[in-house]
Amino acid sequence: MPFNGPADVAAGRRTGVQPHISCDVAIVGGGPAGSAAAIWCAQSGLDALLLEAQPFPRDRPGESLHPGVEALFDQLGVGDVVRAAGYLRYRGHWVHWGDTPRFQAFREPWLGFQAWRADLDAILMRRAGAAGARILQPCRAAAPIVEGGRVVGIESDAGAIRARFVIDASGSRHWLHRHAGIGMHRASRRLIATYGYATGDCDGDPVLAGDPTGWTWTAQVRPDLVAWTQLGFTKLRRPPPEAVRQLKPAGPVRGADVTWRILEACAGSGFFAIGDAASVLDPAASHGVLKAIMSGILAGDLIARAVRGITTESAAAAACQSWNREWFDRDSLRLRALYAALQDAA
Hints:
Strand content: 25-35%
Largest sheet: 8 strands, mixed
Distance between the termini: 67 Å
Number of strands: 22
Number of helices: 8
CATH architecture of the domain at 6-74 and 117-187 and 260-345: 3-Layer(bba) Sandwich
CATH superfamily of the domain at 6-74 and 117-187 and 260-345: FAD/NAD(P)-binding domain
Radius of gyration: 21 Å
CATH topology of the domain at 6-74 and 117-187 and 260-345: FAD/NAD(P)-binding domain
Shape: globular
Order of helices and strands: HEHEEHHEEEEHEEEEHEEEEEEEEEEEHH
Structural class: alpha+beta
């Protein structure tokens, strides 16, 4: 029985008979990681099914994207659309890190993107659909289906979805961790970042300012809108940072758990976890979207190779696990060194 989206879901609920759905790859989460995986799988000839619980547009913080992400956008087929989206571009950023302020410029002619995430997520998901992925939205993934120790599908609002592989791209909600009992390693004390927006102009490139108690990031993400994020190392920072206090707040101050953490198994029998679903570091690591897209492409490529018999499933899972672990360990060491430098300068 073919599946035709929300109408079939509603019909199934009325009659008590759920449609049968099967695919090569089922992906939980429609952010950059999930959409990148869906695009790559579909471009590789796989039947990819993407589940996103929320309708778009959905509220997401604005992002400062390193120019290295532009080549990835081109690989995914959205480069021209992103460049035409009207995002502000920036040359680099100022760093006030316990010493003389310095400007860290990107290599010419590279420019970063001040991307509005609600728009970016929609661009990537539309591309996933155009590439051939099936999109279920809104559709909630309830729990993984596990048989004989292998993840073989998803229980969802649309019924049971059978899949050769399941990808968790649910972000920091860690869907597989919560529903499949996969362990989580925490590498820091509990850390909560606060963030918000202010109406006005901060007149310049983004600024990262650190002191012994924490750091603050401010960036002009739209012509009339400044985004800010801050993290206190030992104490929650609630008020907006001093750099934007003269501006009018645009919406409430919000918080996010950015405790450093990584799944004990980022891939295994029938499953892959990508983006923040696999690991989280605080935003000073500075490349959350870049990492998300790269991990989505990696998982899609590894799955395609396993399906074609180019590699084994166990080797594909090991490669994903190694990539996530090495990235997490490298960034953790870098962040620890950065924060130690602030303490030494005190």
